[in-house]
Design brief:
The protein is globular and about 70 Å long. α4 (about 130-145) packs across α5, α9 runs antiparallel to α13 (about 380-415) and α11 (about 350-360) packs across α13 (about 380-415). Helix content is about 40%, strand content about 15%. The chain has two domains: about 1-10 and about 30-75 and about 235-505, Hexokinase, domain 1; about 80-220, Nucleotidyltransferase, domain 5, CATH 3.30.420.40. It is built from 18 helices and 13 strands. With about 525 residues, it is α/β, with parallel strands linked by helices. Bound molecules: adenosine-5'-diphosphate and magnesium ion (MG).
């Protein structure tokens, strides 16, 4: 790259209002190199997608040696279609908060929910598992008491006297039944001893019994599975549930014939928890930078969940902080001066990136406020603020494109011969160089946009992707950047067919639906 290179954000996301004409040659050069390092080209995305699909296949075949994707069968068969009724407790543990909910499924794709959040302290995230489980049991009791819930007032299809609970537990678990699962490893900052290798449902049920809380744990679901189920309650064709929050992961609907690890499948389809946060942990394909490696090395779980560490809310701010310090140390930012706050590990929250990227003013004064109030950087020029925003854009955009890659890979798997979408004739690209089947290109080579209506008229169902998580919901341009990446991978018809939707409260409603499926012992096969 030449020294005169002037980095400019890609045109679709140019919200900085001026070219960076005031940047010094050195600033332009170093930031240009960073831009190069953090950009993921279409052909790189293609390579990553192919490897992702190969790893999915290896996981489904039980070949755990050649894959980082666990591809865990969830024992959740079929999907709800919105007619289900009943009230259930739901519990969501997966990040900073524990949430207890009461969900009333009303049928007609409608539900009501009440919930209460309890903060899981840093101490509890590292305490012995029995201490964490006691805390959960007591929180459930607190919720039941404060909301005056009893099994009497709960409309209960199974006629059970106990309150039935669905547990959304967002850590890697191998399941042996809908209500049994062994923790494989902790992620996202948790490290409670006594849990890995043990059945999470049993640990919780014991704590409930110990604390005399009359609740039965009916189902254990991952948050991705809960998100898929909940979205399916509103959009019965939901194919993927994905999380872009503290961590990232996805679940999808697989044809049971494709699951080689299940010898005698009794249903046509089953939801698979991919555990995609662990994709390519050996960094054979992912474009990791020194900033990612530093973060990984200093994390609580080095060498695993490398993909998650490039994408999710827990980490994006820290990658950005690492880059900012690298620029400061070369005197290219803040005149070479950091602050005690910025020097502190994890001090730069992903939320700041959202706020910084949202600032489209010329002088970037809102960014100055974040730098001053949240980070103690009092001397910052407009050039400094432009650079900070530029760095956030690099990290945020890479995260969205990698998220698109995982989503596209799962859709391509679905479209493959053994997958659940096979034979639906979706006019999407299946591989690099493939021309989207039936894509409508006019004489000038530009695509003629067709509406979802015409897709439906052609007998095609849209592919719904239910998404939960603050990063997807609040990070500016995250969705738009994801759609751009998806379109590069799946072709011009993507916007007509792939529908990304926010599945708010996915873990609550989804867990309730899983408890319903488990207690009614109903298999919703389609
Ligand atoms: P969880 O994944 O724990 O269920 P969330 O989906 O709310 O919870 O994700 C929390 C993560 O999202 C945190 O890592 C936090 O840094 C990040 N986050 C919170 N607010 C924002 C925001 N406005 N923009 C981007 N990321 C955010
Ligand atoms: Mg969540």
């Amino acid at each position: 790259m030449s020294a005169s290179f002037t980095p400019t954000p890609t045109p679709t996301h140019t919200h900085t209002n001026k070219p960076h004409s005031r940047w010094s040659d050195k600033q332009s050069k170093v930031l240009g190199d960073l831009a190069e390092e953090f950009s993921v080209s279409t052909s790189q995305l293609e390579r990553l997608t192919t490897a992702f699909i190969d790893q999915m296949q290896a996981g489904l075949a039980g070949d755990q040696k050649s894959t980082d994707l666990a591809m865990i069968p969830t024992f959740v068969s079929g999907r709800p279609d919105g007619h289900e009724r009943g009230s259930y407790l739901a519990l969501d543990l997966g990040g900073t908060n524990l949430r207890v909910c009461l969900i009333a499924l009303k049928g007609n794709n409608d539900f009501e929910s009440h919930s209460k959040a309890f903060k899981v302290s840093d101490h509890l995230q590292e305490a012995h598992i029995s201490e964490l489980m006691d805390f959960i049991a007591i929180s459930i009791r607190d919720f039941i008491t404060s909301e005056h819930i009893s099994s009497k007032i709960v409309e209960h299809p199974s006629g059970s006297e106990t309150l039935e609970l669905g547990f959304t537990f967002s850590f890697p678990v191998t399941q042996t039944a809908i209500d049994a699962g062994m923790l494989l490893r902790w992620t996202k900052g948790f490290s409670c001893p006594g849990a890995v290798g043990n059945d999470i449902v049993q640990l919780l049920q014991e704590a409930l019994n110990r604390n005399e809380v009359n609740v039965h744990v009916a189902a254990l679901v991952n948050d991705t599975v809960g998100t898929l189920l909940a979205h399916s309650y509103k959009h019965p064709n939901t194919f993927i549930g994905a999380i872009f929050g503290t961590g990232t992961n996805g679940a999808y609907v697989e044809d049971t014939r494709g699951i080689k690890t299940m010898t005698t499948p009794t249903t046509e389809e089953m939801i698979i928890n991919i555990e995609w946060g662990n994709y390519d942990k050996d960094k054979r394909f992912l474009p990791v930078t020194i900033f990612d490696n530093k973060l990984d090395r200093e994390s609580i779980n080095p060498g695993v969940h490398v993909f998650e560490k490039m994408i999710s809310g827990m980490y994006l701010g820290e990658i950005t902080r690492n880059i900012l310090l690298h620029l400061i140390d070369q005197r290219l930012l803040f005149d070479g001066t950091s602050s005690a706050k910025l020097n502190q590990h994890w001090s730069f929250e992903t939320k700041y990136m959202s706020q910084i990227e949202s600032d489209t003013s010329v002088t970037l004064i809102p960014i100055a406020q974040i730098l001053e109030q949240d980070l103690g950087i009092y001397l910052n020029t407009q050039v400094d603020r432009e650079i900070v925003k530029f760095v956030c854009q690099l990290v945020g955009k890479r995260a969205a494109r990698l998220s698109a890659m995982a989503t596209a890979a799962v859709i391509r798997r679905g479209l493959s011969v053994e997958g659940r979408l096979a034979g639906h004739g979706y006019p999407l690209k299946l591989s690099q160089g493939d021309h989207a089947i039936g894509s409508n290109v006019n004489k000038n080579g530009t695509n003629v946009h067709e509406s979802t209506d015409s897709v439906v008229n052609q007998g095609l169902q849209p592919i719904h992707v239910g998404i939960d998580g603050s990063v997807f919901e609040h990070y500016p341009h995250f969705e738009e950047r994801m759609v751009e990446g998806l379109t590069e991978l799946l072709g011009p018809r993507t916007k007509d067919i792939v529908v990304l939707g926010i599945a708010r409260d996915g873990s609550g409603v989804g867990a309730a639906l899983a408890a319903l499926i488990a207690t009614k012992n109903v298999v919703y096969s389609r």
